Amino acid sequence: MNTPIHDFLSSYAAKNPVRCHMPGGKTTPFDITEIEGADSLFESSGIIRESEKNAARLFGAGKTLFSCGGSTLSIQTMLSLAKAYRPEKKRVVASRYCHKSLISSCALLGLVPDWVYPEEYLSCKITPQAVKEKITSDTLCVFAQSIDYYGGESDIGGIARVCREKNVPLLTDNAHGAYLVFTDRHPLGLGSDMTADSAHKTLPCLTGGAYLHINKNAPEIFLREAKSAMSLFGSSSPSYLILDSLDLCGSFIEEEKKRAERVFGEISRLKSTLSELGFTLKKSDLMRVTLDAPSCGYTGTELAEVLRKRGVESEFSDRKYTVLLFSAAQPLEDFEKIVEAAKKIPPKKPFIPENPPIIRPKAAMEPREALFSPAETVPLEKAAGRILADINTPCPPCVPIIMPGEIIDAEVLGALCGYGVESLRVVK
């Protein structure tokens, strides 16, 4: 497959011209600005447009846009397009345990989430029936996650059928599932109208590289106004290093399917081997191994530290789980290193951890009103009865425990205390 962005950058660097243009750093040849021939991300008509068309073909999209601002920029764009499609509506049916970019985007656009709660903390698994029950005449769109931090998966196909029945667009946060392009389970193919993919999470792409895919059958305004909507939130100085990596990522997708499938197989074998070694695994997607740490006597954070000392750095850990996340381009020798490290972990007495509570705070204000209200920071013990004025979340997983505009009651205080939160920004 041709790589128009990479080819242009290579050609320009080979000429070694006197660079009387931005950026200020002159030591990285591919780090350029919108010079003649380089195209412009939000008005693309040349090499960027050609590369985006290549990506759209690979994913089966009606249109694909590159993002240098991660899936966050793609999510902001999706919600902006949904709002432009039906400006009289403002409510978004969404999985409660979402990335904070959803709630910040809602605040910026004046939208209000109607939460669908899963059965487990940090799970993205919401049922089509639960989504259907939340849709009303004021529903702007449904926002679902395809894969959560633990590797749990939503029934995107079932949710898409509900959305078609109710004539409501489905927007999917597939940040953790860009690798699904190698399968028949990508949200776009399952009926999502728009899908945000973080290429940098599971594909060979620089951090910040992401896609926004728009379905061929999506409302025409989504296809027509996507670039304009993305320019509202994105920097006018996108990174050509990231654009280069997205361009090359397309070549990887087209040419390295067998390699990706081999990685899937290695992850599956790793799961089996770890089970044989006595580890208990939580069911997870193709690209993740999620270890139930208390079953071998550790908290997830402790087990992550033990692995770190043995040369294995995990993606995420909490009180219960340690998550190993892989890439479609993962070096195959890594899997044997993980097995050898796991063999050296001394087992301890298993214990049953306390499950994080699923709290359902009541909203007293809309997110936008709360975030832009006068506020003050108070110690946690003095926050009872107050209204949260911030998006308070650790990263990873970047999932808020309580949302702006919600009341901080005793149950919320208990949950926040359990996560080591010491102070909160609240509405005055």
Quote the CATH topology of the largest domain. Aspartate Aminotransferase, domain 2
Largest sheet: 7 strands, mixed
Structural class: alpha/beta
Q: Helical region count? A: 14
Morphology call: globular
Overall mean confidence score, pLDDT: 96
Structure, explained:
With 428 residues, the chain is of the alpha/beta class. The chain has 3 domains: 4-255, Type I PLP-dependent aspartate aminotransferase-like (Major domain) (Aspartate Aminotransferase, domain 2), CATH 3.40.640; 257-343, Aspartate Aminotransferase, domain 1 (Alpha-Beta Complex), CATH 3.90.1150.10; 367-427, Alpha-Beta Complex (Ornithine Decarboxylase, Chain A, domain 4). Helix content is 36%, strand content 14%. It contains 14 helices and 13 strands. The chain has helices at residues 4-15, 47-59, 70-85, 100-109, 128-134, 156-166, 199-202, 220-231, 240-255, 257-276, 300-309, 333-343, 367-371, 410-418, and strands at residues 63-67, 91-95, 112-116, 139-145, 170-173, 194-197, 210-214, 281-282, 288-292, 316-317, 321-325, 375-379, 423-427. A 7-stranded mixed β-sheet has the order 1-7-6-5-4-2-3, sandwiched between helices. A 4-stranded antiparallel β-sheet has the order 8-9-11-10. A two-stranded antiparallel sheet has the order 12-13. A hairpin with a 3-residue loop joins strand 10 (316-317) and strand 11.
Quick structural overview:
Helices cover 36% and strands 14% of the residues. The chain is an alpha/beta fold and 428 residues long. Helix 10 runs parallel beside helix 12 (333-343).
